Amino acid sequence: MTKSIIVFLTVLALSSSAYAQSGKKVFETYCWGCHHQTAVAFGPPFAEIASKRNAEEIQAMIADPAAVSKIFGYKRNAMPPFKLTPEELKAITAYILSYKPSHKESK
Q1: Domain hosting residue 17, numbered range
Q2: What is the pLDDT of residues 38-63, one digit of tens each?
Q3: How confident is the model at residue 2 (pLDDT cuts 50, 70, 90)?
Q4: CA–centroid distance for 44 within its chain
Q5: For the chain, where are the alpha helices, taking DSSP H only?
Q6: For residues 101 and 103, what is the distance between their CA atoms, to the nearest angstrom?
Q7: Alpha carbons 69 and 63: distance in angstroms, whole number
Q8: What's the CATH code of the domain at 41?
Q9: Residue 62 lies in a domain
């Protein structure tokens, strides 16, 4: 039983890492013009987004930024909608969330 749990956690960690790597490719294709990973650019950095939003909110913002901006209470939105495949959307979300500050870093 313990061996099965260890194998499962290892596979989960590797798949998360793979999503983050393919997410970097999505970032380089669609996002880098307005976002940087940790520095403010035209849009907020991924570290800030990851500290404020969950996966569902990030995915919704990418798919329909005009509507989600209103839900979040923003007065305007400059982000265009992106038509990503489900795999690309999961990958970029994992990549963005990989910049979430750890609890230790926020102290």
Answers
A1: 2-97
A2: 888 889 999 999 999 999 999 999 99
A3: low
A4: 12
A5: 2-26, 46-52, 55-63, 65-72, 86-97
A6: 7
A7: 11
A8: 1.10.760.10
A9: yes
Question: How many domains is the chain partitioned into structurally?
Answer: 1
Sign of CA dihedral 72, 73, 78, 81: positive
Give the integer Cα–Cα distance in Å for 75 and 85.
Answer: 29
Q: Tell me if 103 is assigned to some domain.
A: no
Alpha carbon distance 91, 24 (integer Å): 8
Q: CB–CB of 39/100 below 8 Å?
A: no
Q: Is residue 63 part of a domain?
A: yes
* Under 8 Å between Cβ of 27 and 95: yes
pLDDT tens figures, 74-101: 888 889 998 999 999 999 999 999 999 8
Q: Is residue 105 part of a domain?
A: no
